[in-house]
Amino acid sequence: MLKAVILIGGPQKGTRFRPLSLDTPKPLFPIAGLPLIQHHIEACAKLEACKEILIIGSYTTSHMQQFVTDMAKEYHVIIRYLQEFTALGTGGGLYHFRDQVRAGNPTAFFLLNGDVCADFPLKDLWHFHEEKPNALVTIMGTEATRQQSVHYGCMVCESGSKSVTHYVEKPNSYVSTLINCGVYVCSLQVFHTMADAFQKKQDRFYSGNGHSNPGYMSWEQDVLAPLAGTNKLYAMQVNNWWSQVKTAGSAIYANRHYLELHKERTCTNATCTVLPDVFVHPTATVDPTAVIGPNVSIGAGVTIKAGVRIKESIVLNNATINEHALVMYSVVGQEASVGEWSRVEGTPSDPDPNKPFAKMDNTPLFNTDGRLNPSITILGASVVVPAETILLNSIVLPHKHLTRSFKHEIIL
């Protein structure tokens, strides 16, 4: 029997995802028609041996309960949400709920970061882990460019055994192009290692040298880094698509790839012109003269009127796109409205296609001159864009009623 643990953090995290996370918790933000962590749940539920999925985070239970109930019904697997009442870090939450993870004595458990998107090869990862009898943790790794690798956990492996000899989280200088994907298989014995790390944290805290929260523990720095070089930490390198969702721009990029991976969900019977791949929720109303795609997701209750053109965008529930409007490289928030003949356009922030293994660059919001860096355009919930308006590379916070065109601005 196997289990899975999904770490989703809490509302104090994911600040780069605002304003989209102001009304929807980031783990539930829809990408390719499904909440972000539903893709994780689906990958875990495909494994027959996986009998329980635990979601650990500090969002309130009221935010998560309906989602958890729906998922358990849909995938016929036990799913529970375990709420941290204070931020415990990537390792602290897992250690705090160790008894729930160990209950039923599973052979091992998967550990997945909630903000990664991937074609999850969980079965391959599990088989790889099984072949290493002394492995406590097996990391799913992938190749990055030399310049970008320093923004991730970097690993050095033995060429034959794939044992990790060196692990550094976000190093100051180049270590390796093999990076940590935030997807793991762990043996239950890893909790003994975590107990030692936890004890060291406690000793430091009570001697006055530690973190302000004695329960706080970093999985990467307090567990993985000390395991490197002990023949108990391994890495399986994959070439599957993988990305993180840190910003709204990375959500558009992930949307494209998930649509491609799950073509069985994409729209094939629409009356309007569709340039694949496109997801349209069954409750959305789309005029036959609209042209949608490529790489568009349309949420529940959305109304798209005559002559509308949408590409490379996500339109959230109950939004309205009025006649002849254009939406490109944008996220349109819940119940937002785009007026007729308006243009809502952003700039894609995709990885450099000319660099092998390039990942998303999560560029800062502002450049060194204090100007807004070009990025996708975001309309917060219930924003109203009037007719014949241009909105370019801008972020509009929820409930704003615009009165004119904007370029390269944040509208507070």
UniProtKB/TrEMBL annotation:
CDD domains: M1P_guanylylT_A_like_N
Membrane-spanning ranges: none
Residue numbers spanned by region Disordered: 343-363
Pfam families given in the database record: GMPPB_C, NTP_transferase
PANTHER family: SUGAR-1-PHOSPHATE GUANYL TRANSFERASE
Family: Belongs to the transferase hexapeptide repeat family.
Name listed for the protein in its UniProt record: Nucleotidyl transferase domain-containing protein
Organism (species): Arctia plantaginis
